[in-house]
Automatic annotation (TrEMBL):
Substrate binds at residues 95-98, 117. CDD domains: RraA_family. The keyword Lyase applies. This is Putative 4-hydroxy-4-methyl-2-oxoglutarate aldolase. Homohexamer. Belongs to the class II aldolase/RraA-like family. Belongs to the LigK/PcmE family. It catalyses: oxaloacetate + H(+) = pyruvate + CO2; 4-hydroxy-4-methyl-2-oxoglutarate = 2 pyruvate. The keyword Lyase applies. Its cofactor is Mg(2+); a divalent metal cation.
Length: 234
């Protein structure tokens, strides 16, 4: 299979990205039909950080970061670098030096289905990373792979130019072809949630405004006022 670097990719329009930046991962995941969510094993090394931007993908042989160096060259300001491996591995694929180079290119952050090292230095730099592991094991720089090829990260398919959103709750992928639908659905969901907050503020119960009491009945959930003594007698 040919290994390659694709220099130029189609990215979402900036005004669309800016609207997604007002949203959160859970809202977008739910709004687009509960799809695109990466596995919970990819965790942020920082807290209270949110990124949103087009994906540049780097597909590397496990334990080798040559293609990450190749990806740096094609990254543009605002991009999110998504790193995956062929083969299982959690070696420290990026560290302080690569992060410094990515920051110089204006990259927003990294999502990687592998490991990082220099975690303290990366946190000090304020660079957002979602990763599967923090591990000091080093890598080689001798094996080719792919930059801007379709890949799978954290169980979710990612194509170059797809929108990547990440926050404290996880990482979600919005496919380029679904961006308009996902944005409109997310806005509608937020409007609905505002209405729900108003109901809660008025003292209404979720059992009622979600019409959940019939479900309790169907599931034969029984209410008792004070005691379970009749159960003990049985």
């Amino acid at each position: 299979m040919e290994k390659y670097v694709l220099r130029n990719i189609a990215r979402p329009e900036q005004h669309i990205i800016e609207q997604f930046k007002e949203l959160d991962v859970s809202t977008v995941y739910e709004a687009q039909g509960k799809i695109g969510l990466m596995h919970y094993s990819l965790k942020p090394i920082q807290q209270q950080t949110r990124i949103c931007g087009p994906a540049v993908t780097a597909v590397c042989p496990a334990g080798d970061n040559l293609m990450i160096h190749a990806a740096i060259e094609v990254c543009k300001p605002g991009d999110v670098l998504v790193i995956t491996t062929v083969g299982e591995g959690v070696a420290g694929m990026i560290g302080e030096l690569i992060v410094t180079a990515l920051m110089k290119r204006g990259v927003q952050g990294v999502i990687m289905d592998s490991g990082i090292r220099d975690a303290a230095q990366i946190r000090e730099l304020g660079f957002p990373v979602w990763t599967r592991a923090i591990f000091s094991q080093g890598t080689t720089k001798s094996r080719g792979g792919w930059v801007n090829a379709p890949t799978v990260c954290g169980g979710a398919g990612v194509n170059p130019g797809d929108l990547i959103m990440a926050d404290d709750d996880g990482v979600v992928v919005v496919k380029k072809e679904d961006i308009s639908f996902a944005l409109e659905s997310s806005k509608q969901r937020l409007q609905k949630e505002e209405g729900t907050k108003e109901k809660i503020a008025r003292g209404e119960l979720s059992l009622d405004f979600y019409n959940l009491r019939p479900t309790l009945d169907k599931e034969q959930v029984v209410y008792y006022e004070n005691s379970f003594s009749h159960l003990e007698k049985e």
